[in-house]
Amino acid sequence: MTPTPAPSPWRAGHRGDGLRRWLHREALPMICLLALLLVARSSLANHYYVPSGSMEPALAPGDRVVVDMRAYGLRVPFSQLTLWPGDPLAPGDVVVFRSPSDNVRLIKRVVAVAGDRVDLVDGRLAINGMPLARRPGGPEDFGDVQVALNLDDGGGPDLHNVVVPDGQVLVLGDHRGASIDGRYFGFVPAASIYGQARGVFWRSGEGFGWRRL
Q1: What is the pLDDT of residue 76?
Q2: Distance from the first to the final alpha carbon of the chain
Q3: Three-state SS for 67?
Q4: Number of Cβ within a 10 Å radius of residue 80
Q5: What CA–CA distances, in Å, run from 164 to 111, 123, 143, 170?
Q6: How far is the C-alpha of 156 from the C-alpha of 177, rounded, in Å?
Q7: Gap between the Cα atoms of 38 and 209, Å rounded
Q8: pLDDT in tens, 146-183
């Protein structure tokens, strides 16, 4: 009976060296790349899929939106700790945040910031006593942004003499009668808003393009 030869120590060591070289050459760079992508998505940029028509006509169901995560400050990945501040939140900004009521990720428009006094009647805003629409039925004027509204389903719940507290913002949908927004879940902490929607890069039925918000 011929004895079975023992495994060659040289061959085992050779296989181990090859595996280490492969891990160093292929796996380690791949892991680093995935880590960088995760950090980028948490701190720099991301995208958002619009699930409903609450922001029509600016956003349609199925739109894919670029979200700038640096707009309001660069944060430590996966946290709310800000390394350095960005621009202040401004009325007219379209933002992505977690709902204070159920933690679902939402996209809405900031309509008022800390200290603003808000009145909303039949879907039409007045801030600090001044109507935002320059003419009846016209778009609302947020300075750099002119916002067309969808009032096909009415204006939704009214607001009267509501003052936004420090550190908070009020968000509403542009489709005022079909939006679950700050009228239902209250003010949103400014620190919990993690990105500004910059534009739509893909729309169902139209494909790729760019529509600035």
Answers
A1: 55
A2: 82
A3: strand
A4: 12
A5: 10, 18, 19, 7
A6: 4
A7: 25
A8: 999 999 999 999 999 999 999 999 999 999 999 999 99
Closest CA relative to residue 12, chosen from 2, 20, 1, 3: 20
Active site residues: 54, 108
Arithmetic mean of pLDDT, 102-119 = 96
Output the 3-class SS for 89-140: CCCCCEEEEECCCCCCEEEEEEEEECCCEEEEECCEEEECCEECECCCCCCE
Place of tokens 């009647």: 121
- Partnered with residue 195 across adjacent β-strands are 96
Strand-strand pairing, 168-172 and 188-189: antiparallel
Buried b (16+ CB within 10 A) or exposed e, 1-36: eeeeeeeeeeeeeeeeeeeeeeeeeeeeeeeeeeee
Residue whose pair of structure tokens reads 């009415």 in the numeric block: 154
What's the token pair of residue 62? 């199925």
